[in-house]
Amino acid sequence: MSDSTIPAEGFGLLRGKTGVIFGALDESSLAWHIAEAVHREGGRFVLSNAPVTKRFGSLEGLAERTSSPIVYADATSADDLGAVFAAATEHTDGPLDFVVHSIGMGINVRKKRPYEDLNYDWYLKTLDISAVSLHRVVRAALDAGALADAGSVLALSYIGAQRTFSEYSEMGDAKALLESIVRSFGYRLGQRGIRINAVSQSPTRTTAGSGIKGFDAMFDFAEQIAPLGNADAQSCADYCVTLLSDLSRMVTMQTLYHDGGFSAMGISDATVELLAGALASE
Ligand SMILES: NC(=O)c1ccc[n+]([C@@H]2O[C@H](COP(=O)([O-])OP(=O)(O)OC[C@H]3O[C@@H](n4cnc5c(N)ncnc54)[C@H](O)[C@@H]3O)[C@@H](O)[C@H]2O)c1
Q: Which domains are present in the chain?
């Protein structure tokens, strides 16, 4: 739970800034909350998601509320992404200050294929959608001359990149690659003052999150361990705003944990008591 005293009109942190936000599917999406927070802070943006989401997403409502055009694009297609950045710079009349990559999909995970028995075509697709797409997005933006100097690129990650969470399976590999791309591109983008970071977010109840078997157990476990509890989507969006703003202009190539302290914990009293109780009743 995160209480906030942020005023409805925000702080104007992104006034005058423009960008592209990838990955808002419905009201539970992290990108949806990020778009609302960016809008609150005065930023303008183009929304993008996979063409297939036209059929079952609800992006139009968000687009209308935030006065943002939508350009549908498959994040595995360089041509689609090129079209996004061409349209975005035309809409904003100049290069962009920020890009948010909030895209992920584990095909083997969805199809309940265990890690020991991965279907490699699906695995490559998972890596392509969830990690390589970040490279492709940045490259498309650079090729289109769409990134302003001193801009900010942000991707969403999970601690499964560093530690094994059994049911997270292939997505742990995808997040490890994603975070590596953040570092590799960060070096190169730094020459123009552009920064790139990954926010490693708590388990959050979204379409992608709940597609993982055992998600509720992962959610409850993290909730018990993290001193602040799990970070919700709203607080994630507020943190992302600071990373898109000039307030964080010297931060780059980082995996930044937004997880209520989970990543620095071993075990908590609540978990010790729970385990002790379970063992005693055996
Ligand atoms: N929910 C969690 O527990 C959690 C925790 C940490 C990190 N994340 C990460 O946050 C990001 C956003 O996920 P979310 O939890 O908001 O779920 P979500 O399902 O709302 O968002 C995932 C998005 O990826 C998009 N996508 C999938 N394939 C695509 C493709 N080929 N081209 C373009 N877009 C495509 C989907 O349409 C969707 O909008 C992901 O990177 C996810 O791994 C989620």
A: 18-280 (3.40.50.720)
User: Both tokens of residue 165?
Assistant: 């969470």
Choosing from 158, 187, 239, 257, which is the catalytic residue? 158
Within 10 Å of residue 177's Cβ, how many Cβ atoms? 17
- Residues in the chain where the model's pLDDT stays below 50: none
Yes or no: say if 64 and 267 are a contact pair by the CB < 8 Å rule: no
Structural contact between residues 167 and 218, judged by C-beta atoms closer than 8 angstroms: yes
168 is catalytic: yes
Please give the biggest Cα pair distance in the chain: 67
Q: Is 160 in the pocket of ligand 1 (CB under 6 A)?
A: no
- Whole-number Å distance between alpha carbons of 48 and 32: 11
Span from the CA of 139 to the centroid of ligand 1 (angstroms): 20
Helices of type H across the chain: 30-40, 53-56, 59-65, 78-92, 107-110, 120-127, 133-143, 170-189, 207-210, 215-225, 233-244, 269-280
- Name the pairing type of β-strands 255-258 and 44-48: unpaired
Q: Give the count of beta carbons closer than 10 Å to the beta carbon of residue 48.
A: 32
Buried b (16+ CB within 10 A) or exposed e, 96-109: bbbbbbbbbbbbbb
Q: What is the pLDDT of residue 2?
A: 60
Q: Rounded to two decimals, what is the model's pTM?
A: 0.97
pLDDT score at 257: 98
Q: pLDDT tens-digit profile of 23-79?
A: 999 999 999 999 999 999 999 999 999 999 998 878 999 999 999 999 999 999 999
